[in-house]
Amino acid sequence: MACLTHGKPGRSTLKQTGRPFQIGDRVWLNGGYDPPERRIWLGGRAGYAGTLLDIQGDHAVVELDEEIALTAPDAWGEGFKLGILGDAQFVRVASGRWMVLTHGWVNQEWREPIGRLHVQLSAQRPDLTLNPQSEELGAWIEGHATMSHFVADA
Question: For the chain, how many structural domains are there in total?
Answer without folding.
Answer: 1
